[in-house]
Amino acid sequence: MSSLATSGIIFGCVFGGALVGMFLRAVLPERHLSPETKDVVKLGMGLIATMAALVLSLLIASAKSSFDTQRSELAQLSANIILLDRVLALYGPETKDAREALRGIVSGALERVWHENQAQAMQVEPAANASERIFQKIEELSPKTDGQRSLQAQASKMTMDLLQARWLLFAQRGSSIPVPFLVVLVFWLTILFSSFSLFSPPNLTVIVTLMVCALSVSGAIFLILELDRPFGGFIQISSAPLRDALARLGH
Questions:
Q1: Number of C-alpha atoms within 13 angstroms, CB side, residue 19?
Q2: Which of 81-90, 123-132, 229-238, 241-250 has the highest mean pLDDT?
Q3: How many domains does the chain have?
Q4: Which helix (H) or strand (E) holds 223?
Q5: To 10 degrees, the CA torsion angle through 41, 42, 47, 48?
Q6: Helix (H, G, I), strand (E, B), or coil: what is residue 22?
Q7: Residues 52 and 185 sit within 8 Å (Cβ to Cβ)
Q8: Which domain holds residue 230?
Q9: Can you give the pLDDT at residue 163?
């Protein structure tokens, strides 16, 4: 389910809770709406509001940290790709096939993850065959000098590091937001909004205010879900580092 659809459902739950509170205000006997009852409800809702705020801040911090981590890893991966290309260039013209294979891998990754056709699903999984091919080409080199042997060993290690980094990005593609956290948070917010409307007069100002608040809360959760999907959705990790690396390959 998309982040937009999920946040829409959350908005419906939270604002629906406010409507339920209005309904309860209309049907409950007057003794249930006494000042003493109102004070007890306020104390309970204050506790729930505090817990909801803590969970919401935790989810925001977790999603932002995951997003920043993967963005940094992509930037580091792009820098290492350029460095590997330069090491192969220093080795000599014998590495032409390996450098072309490296360029093909980068171009293929850009096409799979940041393709222009948004109707297609994002494919973060590395192309294993292509990645292994460049490693084989480096291993098949026949160095003639100590310098070339050193460059070959360095290129082999860098290639393995790049493969590890790419698979790490793939392994981190899953959600870092625990679903139970999200469910409990929505439950708390629904109860909270029910209490808001329980002791408020059901006029247009109250309804609009509660609607805007519910929209704001669901918008915050929408941003959390988007940050948790860095390679898809409206908020994506920029492909600029990898495109810059592609532009520098082969020179």
A1: 8
A2: 81-90
A3: 1
A4: helix 204-227
A5: 70
A6: helix
A7: yes
A8: 3-248
A9: 83
Inter-CA distances, 68 with 61, 73, 115, 236, Å: 10, 9, 22, 11
Task: Please report the pLDDT score of residue 249 as a whole number.
Answer: 85
Radius of gyration of the chain (CA): 27
Identify the H or E element spanning 148: helix 146-171
Write down the pLDDT at residue 118. Answer: 46
User: 95-109, pLDDT tens digit by residue?
Assistant: 888 888 888 888 888
DSSP symbols for 150-191 = HHHHHHHHHHHHHHHHHHHHHHTTS--S-HHHHHHHHHHHHH
The tally of CA atoms less than 13 A away on the side-chain side of residue 150 is: 4
Question: What's the pLDDT score for residue 10?
Answer: 93
